[in-house]
Design goal:
heterodimer; A: alpha+beta; T-fold; 9-stranded antiparallel β-sheet; two-stranded antiparallel ribbon; B: alpha+beta; 11-stranded antiparallel β-sheet; 7-stranded mixed β-sheet
Chain lengths: 299, 489
C-alpha cells in the first residue's frame, strides 16, 4: 500500500508542501511569480524520486562509513561528505545528515532552475537557505524540538556564510545519545549543520548519570542505525552544576568544530539553560529576542 | 533483526520495523497493539457510535472521510493542533461554518496561550497531605499550595500567575511542565512542605508516600455511625469509628441513643463536639482514618469502672474499613484484642463496599482574557457578553466547560473529558490549550466576527493532517441545539 509522494500548496498558496514517507518538506521561494512557479516545478520533479533513491542504498547509509563501499546517489554522497569529518572522532552514520542533505538537494534544484531572491527548504527543522546578494531571512529557533515554540530568532544576511540550519536533541524526532533538549547549528550548508547538530547534541551529556534514562536504540526501533547504543529517553532533575558540566562538554566540541570551519555558530539548550558558541552578534540577538518573546506571548 | 512484536510498515519504501506503541520514522504511522494505524495532528471529533479508539485505523472505510457525504453536525473541529495566529489581532486559524438542523452555526477554533492558567486538583484521600496553605512542590520548585479539605478530598491549587511568571525561570518552567503533565493525564510526583510525597494522575487513585489509596471514606466517623448503627446493634456493645475529622462513638451518638444502645463508660481523648462526635482524637497522618495512630487504643482513656463491664465488646474501625480491630474488656476493664466475629466482618466489609474508588481529578482553569478574544472578533468585549448571554458555547477540545460568573471568560474543564494530547506549552512559560467558540452565524456577524474568514466544514475535513477522534458519549455534543450550560444574564 505504498502511498504516492504528496505535493500540495499549503493553505496560503505561497508555500509548497512535499511529503513522502518520513520526508516532510516545506519550501518557499521569493522573487518574480513566474520564477517561483518554475522553481516549484523543479522541486516537485526532483522530489518524487528522492525517497526511492535513498531507500535503494538505505542499508549502506545506516552503517558507519567504509572507504570500500561508498554510496552513489547525489544526496547519499552529500550525506557521506557531511559526516566524514566526524568518523575518526566517534560513531556516526550518513543518516545523521539525511534531513539536511535532502533539503539542500531540493533547494539546489529550485535555485538552478530559476532566479530567486530568497528561498528555503525546511525539512522538519533542518533548513537549507538561499539568499541573493543583499537579502536576509529571520529564522525562529526552538528551545525543545518536541514543542513548536520559539525561544528566539536569528537573522541571516547574504554576506554571512550561513546557508544551513539544523536542530538536534533527544526530545526531537531522531534519537540522540546525549541529553541536550536542543542544539541548533548554523553552518555553510544544511547537511553540514545537520551532522554537526547531531554530534554536539550527543556531546551534551553526563555519562553514567543515574537520573538519565537510556534505552538501546534497537529496543525502540529495531532497524535504527544506532543499533544497541543507548539513546536518551528521559532526563531527571539535574543540579545547576550538572547542567553546566553537560553543556560545557557540548560547548567544547562546538568550539572545536567552529575552529575547524565546520560550523558557524551554535545554540545549546538544556533544562532551561542556554549556551551560545559563535559570533557575539548572534548571542546578543538571541538574548534580546528571548526577552521580547517573554513579554510578547501571553493570553 | 525483526522483533516478534514489531510490525513492518509498508506505507513507504523505508519499510520501518515499528514496535508496539511507537511510530515509524515518519511519525505518521504507528504500531497500536499490533495494528498499523495512521496518526495525524489536527483533531476532528467524530460523532461516532463507538468510543475508545482515539485514532482512525488506517484505511478503515467505516470511519475514514470519503469526501462525498456532507455530514455537517456529525463532525466538530476542535482547536487541538489548530495553532494560534500571533499577534492576536489576526483572525483565529479556523473559523468554520456548518448547518445544524437548518441553522447556520460558526465555530471559531484557536489554541490559546495561557500564561496565567492553573489546575485545581481534587485528591480523594483521608490521609493527611500537609497543613493548609503550605507549598506544593514539583522537582523541588514551588508550583502551588494546599487549599481546603472538603468531603473526604484534599484540594490542591497549582499554577497561576505567581508560579508561572512571578518566580525564578526554573520555577516557571517546572510549574508549566507540571501543569502540562497533569492536563495530559500523566502521573506527577508532588511533595507538600511538612507533608508527604503524593503521586497524582487524572482518573487514577493517588499514591501517598508510596501507598496507593484505594477508596474514599464512606463518610466522616459520625456519618459512618449513623449509617451502620442498626447493623451493629446486638453484635457489639461499642463502636468507635476513627476519623481525623470527626471520630464517632456509637453509644454516645444520636443514632445509638435512638436504638437504645446503653452507655459503655468509654472515655475518648480529644475534644467532644456534640454527643458521640469527637474532634482531634489524634494528630493528622497517613494511618488509621487519616490520623497518625497505628494503635487505635491510644485514642482511648480508661473505661469508667462505674459503667463498663467485663467482656464488653468493642469494635474500632476506620472510615474506609481499611483498618479495624476488635476487643473485649478483661476483668480489669482493659481491652484485649480478639479475632473479629463473623457478624462484624460483614459490617466492616460493608463499610469498604460503600466507599467509592479514590481518584485524582484535574480541572484545567484558563481564561480567554485580553487578547485571545481578538482572534474571534474585532470587538472582544462582545464575545464575553455573548458567552454570558449563553449565545456562544465555549468548549475545550470539544469538552464542555464551566464558565465562572463575573468578569472575563474564565473557564474550568475536566481534562479527562478532553481528547488525548490536547495540551502543549510555550517556553514563556505558558500552557497551550484548545478553545472553541460556537454560535449562530447571525450572532457571529452581530458581534463583529471575521465573516470573510468563515469557511465550510467540508473544506477542513478534506484537508491534510486531520486526526479524527470519537467524541466521548459523556460529553454533550458541542453543536447540539440545546443551550450551553453556564451563566445566564
Amino acid at each position: 500500500m505504498r502511498e504516492r509522494a504528496q505535493i500540495t500548496f499549503l493553505g496560503d498558496g505561497r508555500k509548497l508542501h512535499l511529503h513522502d514517507g518520513p520526508i516532510d518538506l516545506v519550501a518557499e521561494a521569493f522573487g518574480d511569480a513566474g520564477e517561483i512557479a518554475v522553481a516549484y516545478r523543479a522541486a516537485a520533479v526532483r522530489f518524487v524520486g528522492v525517497l526511492d533513491e535513498l531507500c535503494g542504498e538505505l542499508s549502506l547509509l545506516r552503517q558507519a562509513l567504509k572507504k570500500s563501499a561508498m554510496p552513489v546517489g547525489v544526496i547519499a554522497r552529500r550525506m557521506t561528505a557531511a559526516v566524514s569529518p566526524y568518523t575518526e572522532r566517534s560513531f556516526i552514520t550518513p543518516m545523521a545528515a539525511v534531513a539536511g542533505a535532502v533539503a539542500e538537494e531540493i533547494l539546489r534544484c529550485m535555485t538552478s532552475a530559476a532566479r530567486l531572491s530568497r528561498a528555503y527548504v525546511n525539512n522538519g527543522g533542518d533548513i537549507a537557505v538561499h539568499l541573493a546578494a543583499g537579502e536576509s531571512f529571520v529564522v525562529g529557533m526552538v528551545e525543545r524540538p518536541d514543542h513548536a515554540s520559539l525561544f528566539g530568532k536569528v537573522q541571516l544576511h547574504s554576506e554571512q556564510p550561513v546557508r544551513g540550519i539544523a536542530t538536534s536533541g533527544w526530545r526531537g524526532r531522531s534519537f540522540s545519545l546525549g541529553i541536550a533538549d536542543a542544539v541548533t547549528v548554523l553552518a555553510e550548508r544544511a547537511a553540514m549543520a545537520d551532522a554537526a547538530a547531531t554530534m554536539i547534541a550527543n556531546a551534551v551529556d553526563l555519562p553514567g548519570h543515574e537520573r538519565i534514562f537510556r534505552v538501546p536504540a534497537r529496543d525502540l526501533a529495531p532497524d535504527s542505525d544506532l543499533g544497541d547504543r543507548l539513546v536518551t529517553q528521559g532526563v531527571g532533575e539535574l543540579s545547576a552544576d550538572e547542567i553546566a558540566a553537560a553543556l560545557d562538554a557540548g560547548v567544547e566540541l562546538a568550539e572545536l568544530l567552529r575552529a575547524e570551519g565546520l560550523i558557524h555558530s551554535a545554540a545549546l539548550h538544556l533544562s532551561g539553560e542556554t549556551r551560545v558558541v559563535g559570533t557575539r552578534r548572534l548571542t546578543e540577538k538571541i538574548a534580546a529576542d528571548r526577552e521580547s518573546s517573554r513579554s510578547l506571548i501571553h493570553a | 533483526m525483526a522483533d516478534d512484536d514489531a510490525i513492518r510498515c509498508d506505507a513507504c519504501p523505508v519499510l520501518c520495523y515499528i514496535k508496539p506503541g511507537r511510530t515509524g520514522a515518519c511519525d505518521r504511522y504507528a504500531n497500536d497493539d499490533g495494528q498499523l494505524i495512521r496518526i495525524d495532528p489536527h483533531v476532528v471529533l467524530d460523532r461516532a457510535v463507538s468510543r475508545g479508539d482515539s485514532v482512525v485505523p488506517f484505511l478503515d472505510h467505516k470511519r475514514e472521510w470519503d469526501g462525498n457525504i456532507v455530514s455537517g453536525p456529525e463532525n466538530f473541529v476542535t482547536a487541538i493542533g489548530a495553532g494560534t495566529t500571533y499577534p492576536d489581532y489576526k483572525p483565529a486559524p479556523f473559523i468554520i461554518s456548518s448547518a445544524v438542523q437548518g441553522v447556520d452555526m460558526v465555530t471559531v477554533v484557536t489554541e490559546g496561550i495561557f500564561s496565567y492558567c492553573g489546575v485545581k486538583l481534587k485528591i480523594d484521600t483521608d490521609r493527611y497531605l500537609g497543613p493548609e496553605t503550605n507549598l506544593v512542590r514539583a522537582q523541588g520548585e514551588p508550583v502551588g499550595h494546599v487549599t481546603t479539605s472538603e468531603y473526604g478530598s484534599q484540594m490542591l491549587s497549582l499554577g497561576g500567575v505567581r508560579h508561572l511568571t512571578g518566580g525564578s525561570r526554573r520555577e516557571g518552567t517546572v510549574t508549566c511542565e507540571t501543569l502540562l503533565n497533569l492536563c495530559e493525564r500523566k502521573p506527577v510526583e508532588l511533595t507538600v512542605d511538612e507533608g508527604p510525597a503524593v503521586i497524582v494522575q487524572a482518573g487514577k487513585p493517588p499514591v501517598v508516600d508510596g501507598m496507593q489509596e484505594e477508596r474514599m471514606r464512606v463518610g466522616c466517623g459520625s456519618a459512618t455511625i449513623g449509617m451502620f448503627a442498626k447493623q451493629w446493634q446486638g453484635n457489639v456493645d461499642e463502636v468507635v469509628v476513627v476519623d481525623d475529622h470527626i471520630t464517632g462513638v456509637l453509644s454516645e451518638h444520636q443514632a445509638g441513643k435512638l436504638l437504645g444502645i446503653p452507655e459503655t463508660g468509654i472515655e475518648m481523648k480529644g475534644r467532644r463536639s456534640t454527643p458521640g462526635r469527637h474532634f482531634r482524637v489524634a494528630d493528622p497522618g497517613t494511618a488509621w482514618g487519616g490520623t497518625n495512630i497505628d494503635d487505635p487504643l491510644s485514642i482511648l482513656r480508661e473505661f469508667d469502672s462505674k459503667i463498663a463491664w467485663p467482656n464488653l465488646r468493642l469494635l474500632m474501625v476506620s472510615t474506609t474499613g481499611e483498618h479495624y480491630a476488635y476487643f473485649e474488656l478483661d476483668e480489669g476493664l482493659r481491652p484485649v484484642e480478639k479475632e473479629l466475629p463473623v457478624a462484624l466482618q460483614e459490617s466492616v466489609a460493608r463499610i469498604k463496599e460503600n466507599c467509592e474508588p479514590a481518584l485524582c481529578t484535574v480541572l484545567f482553569m484558563g481564561g480567554a482574557g485580553g487578547s485571545l478574544r481578538a482572534g474571534v472578533t474585532e470587538n472582544p468585549v462582545r464575545l464575553t457578553r455573548s458567552v454570558r448571554d449563553a449565545l456562544t458555547r465555549v468548549t475545550c477540545g470539544g469538552a464542555p466547560v464551566y464558565v465562572w460568573p463575573g468578569g472575563g471568560i474564565t473557564f474550568m474543564v475536566d481534562v479527562s473529558r478532553m481528547p488525548e494530547h490536547a495540551f502543549g506549552y510555550v517556553p514563556t512559560p505558558a500552557l497551550v490549550a484548545p478553545i472553541e467558540f460556537t454560535l449562530k452565524i447571525d450572532d457571529y456577524a452581530a458581534l463583529g466576527g471575521y465573516m470573510d474568514q468563515v469557511r465550510p466544514l467540508e473544506s477542513v475535513l478534506r484537508g491534510e493532517g486531520r486526526r479524527h477522534v470519537s467524541a466521548s458519549p459523556e460529553n454533550p455534543w458541542p453543536l447540539s441545539e440545546n443551550k450551553p450550560p453556564g451563566p445566564r444574564p
